[in-house]
Amino acid sequence: MPISICTETQQRQLVAPCALRPLVRSYVEDSIVRRYRPHSIANRERAARHFCHWLDRSGIAIDRVDDNVIDRFARHSCDCPGNRASSTMSKPYIHCVRKFVDYLVQTGVIRKAEPAPEDARITAYGNWLRQQRGLSESTIRAHRSLLKKFLPLLGSEPQAYDAALLRRIFLAEAQCFGTDHMKNVASLLRSYLRFLAVQGEISPVLVQAVPSIAHWHKSSLPRFLPGAKVEALIGSCDTATATGIRDRAILLLLARLGLRAADIMNLCFDDIDWQQGILRVRGKGRRGSSLPLPQDVGDALLRYLTEARPDVPEPRVFLRALAPYHPFADSHAVSSIVNRALRRAGIDDAPSRGAHMLRHSAATAMLQAGATLVTIGTVLRHRSIDVTGRYAKVDTRALGRIAQPWPGDASC
Q: Is 72 noted as a catalytic residue in this protein?
């Protein structure tokens, strides 16, 4: 018999979903099977009931629901029974409604509108980035999204592209956006022009027509935390909880091995060789590397796998702490773990608050412990020693031995 997670008192306060009651019951049962927490299921049920009641009162058929209907619900002046009067719904509440609609789409109750076909040039470019350049799916999505903006400006005939057109488009964009965005634009245009050159549609020389953004190579110091604060960060995890056990394992991987957030997100069981004490990491451009697994990192990983990780058939190691238990959606989730740890540890002066800061911290700690730049570059999987060379600036003792005295009055 279908059940509700709400108490009898809450049931009396909930609006009736009318003829759509079976859909709400099915949704609640699915949430229970997927092991959502009771309070989360109650919130999902309450939002689904309210939305179904409003649909019935508004005369909107369930198979007509789309984003516009959800927006109308979000803006309706609510006087529905069991809800406090309000002119708008909160964002978390509407998020619950969207989850209910997503469930109805997945079960075939609502037929999702087919997306507009993508430009064939964008599809071909994305395939080239994936197959020939080995970029991650998140990077490919970003490139494709930005290219959609510039294709209408470039035109449909690559043979007509010239330096004047590229510079005109680039400078017009620069009037509205800052340096970081324009670096991305320059990178995209060069990448797309290389793709066209490979296809034989333009001359490779045209790539050089894209202007460069002025910057000073290695002008800034790597943003890192001192060793004592890194240890405080790791120690802030509450290992009496499953979330704390997971977060400690992630922080140790970031701080000891200098992994990227994407490395954490994509780490699979097959990447861990317990017998040899090796961690295999698939980095940028599909380049794989094997790194030694330090004792404390291995212990933290093993504890997470045996004591805290949900028992679900998923090849990736790290999962969300709350049901439904699935891998992180993107690398921002890993950076959020670092940010929360900084707050718990009371570290307010961190140079940045994302996962990459711990990569810089790992490199700096290795340098200060006497490791060579070649060794650091190998651990961090840099393609060029020139990239690793920026960390030499943080070794102030070594720099002090070779620094020339200031000329003083001789400079006047």
A: no
At what angle are helices 38-58 and 67-75 packed, to 10 degrees?
90
Of 130, 382, 390, 393, catalytic: 382
Q: Is 284 a catalytic residue?
A: yes
250 & 377 share domain: yes
Kindly name the residue from 46, 143, 256, 359 that is annotated as catalytic: 359
Active site residue 340: no
Picking from 163, 180, 209, the residue at the C-terminal end of a domain is: 209
Choose, from 256, 260, 309, 360, the residue flagged as catalytic. Answer: 260
pTM across the whole model: 0.72
Cα separations in angstroms, 160 against 156, 186, 202, 398: 9, 19, 9, 55
Question: What tens-digit pLDDT sequence spans the chain (412 residues)?
Answer: 345 545 444 444 455 556 788 999 999 999 998 888 888 899 999 999 999 989 988 999 988 899 999 999 998 888 777 665 566 778 889 999 999 999 999 999 998 777 778 889 999 999 999 998 888 888 899 999 999 999 999 998 999 999 999 999 999 999 999 888 999 999 999 999 999 999 999 999 999 999 988 766 655 667 788 999 999 999 999 999 999 999 999 999 999 999 999 999 999 999 999 999 999 987 666 667 889 999 999 999 999 999 999 999 999 999 998 888 899 988 899 999 999 999 999 999 998 889 999 998 998 888 888 888 888 888 888 777 767 767 666 665 555 555 566 666 554 4
Written as six digits, the tokens of 307 are: 């004591």
Q: Among this protein's residues, is 50 annotated catalytic?
A: no
Tokens of 386: 């020139």
Q: Is residue 139 located within the same domain as residue 231?
A: no
Q: Is 356 a catalytic residue?
A: yes
Residue 391 known to be catalytic: yes
User: Do 314 and 383 reside in the same domain of the chain?
Assistant: yes
Q: Which domain holds residue 391?
A: 227-399
Question: Please, are residues 97 and 73 in contact by the beta-carbon 8 Å criterion?
Answer: yes
Residue 392 to residue 372: CA distance in whole angstroms: 10
